[in-house]
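Blinded run. Sample ID left blank on purpose so nobody reads anything into the name before looking at the predicted structure. Input follows.
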Amino acid sequence: MDKLMHKIGLHGKSFIPLLMGFGCNVPAIMATRTLESRKDRVMTMLIIPFMSCSARLPVYVLLISAFFPHNQGLVLFSIYLIGILIAVLSSVLFKKLLFAKQEAPFVMELPPYRLPTMLGLAIHTGERTFEYLKKAGTVILAISIILWAAMAYPQLPLDTRAHFAGEQQTIEANLEAAKASGGDVAALEGQLTALHGERAERALQHSFAGRLGMALEPLTRPAGFDWRTDIALVGGFAAKEVIVATLGTAYSLGDIDPEDPTPLAQQIRNDGRWTSATALALLVFVLLYAPCLVTVAAIRQETGSWGWPVFSMVFNTLIAFGAAVAVRHVTMLFL
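Blinded prediction complete.
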């Protein structure tokens, strides 16, 4: 791969870290230690986050199944290709603007090849499984709890809660009377459902997370993102898997039937603020925006400074926002 990688400003040894990035960006960042040149290491680390790691896959599955049920494979494959394309273009840009100097020749000592043993495979697979379960049971769980608390508190003022309680009692009384007299039960049940939804939305907007999302909404409106999506994206900076958990929490706060909850994909699809263009823009944004907190820490550790991790967060987010806006508006022309 050395000849091909040199055309985009990278070293042949950069190929394996980039390939590893499709699994997890953190070990991919650490794998850049095999590169002798600091220029090659930094460039590779900067474009690894564009490789779509497995943590983003739950977001892809949720949105693609909700809005593109007949072209799931094509849309998913296109998302991966977009990440590769942006990585290539970014590498060319970095080569011309940030690292315009002599390229390192390809010199590599080939170790003896060994046939993997079943025991070795089992050990490594077990280690990776344990690491993910540890991450899911500690980091992701803790962040989900914090985000839930931020979306639940502070509660609505007493007078607002009393108003909704009074409205609910009135509708429920009318509903009981309608059931007894054979009145329009369906209309009253619809009013009760709308009231629950309005109360849940008002409560979420009043919470700490809701206020943050409302503050960010004017900035993200060109990409089609509402305040609930903004809350999920902020949480996704800690770990991309949290995006789905945060959306689930935000929408479940208005669920009035815990015995038979509506699937999150269906709730999003039924939300009038969501369109196929918005979903596609969000897919591109999640693919490209700032790497997760652990990846940022890994870049900091490998580069020895905070400059490059901060640059990565800012550059990736700007690229992601511009791409999301472009994708949304182009998609709207055809859908």
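Unblinding after everyone has recorded impressions. The mean pLDDT is 86.
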